[in-house]
Amino acid sequence: MKAEIKWVDGAMFLGESGSGHTVVMDGPEDHGGRNMGVRPMEMLLLGLGGCTSFDVMSILTKQRQQVTDCVASIEAERADSVPSVFTRIHVHFKVSGKHLKAGSVERAVTLSAEKYCSASIMLEQAGVAITHSHEVIEA
């Protein structure tokens, strides 16, 4: 896996993934940015959310669950001192569908957290406390 980050101007950078996709990262105006893109630490949270959501949907699809929507809401806390690393992250899944089995959703979230989500497992190994919760909504 490869990526390239190119400085544009001020605190703005373009990140290009090895698969050829580009994302804008920028800082706040009080740090030389123009607030035109996500912050790098926000990108980490988005990556974590995408990784675990991909797992949960893949598992539920294999279980033949009729999912109509899946939203992962993520809240994080950072250290007050430099480096301002993540200290705690909570991921809450809202999974909607027809006749969803609550046990299947719980199992999918657990399997992602404990076995499949490389991003969350890597962050946990670095000392970040990551918790998960979920709710099932009948569509």
TrEMBL record:
One Pfam family of this chain: OsmC
Gene3D superfamilies found in the cross-reference section: 2.20.25.10, 3.30.300.20
Domain of life (superkingdom): Bacteria
Coiled-coil regions, chain positions: none
PANTHER family, A to Z: PROTEIN YHFA (PTHR34352:SF1)
NCBIfam families in alphabetical order: PRK10738.1
Protein name: OsmC family protein
Organism per entry: Oceanobacter antarcticus
Lineage: Bacteria, Pseudomonadati, Pseudomonadota, Gammaproteobacteria, Oceanospirillales
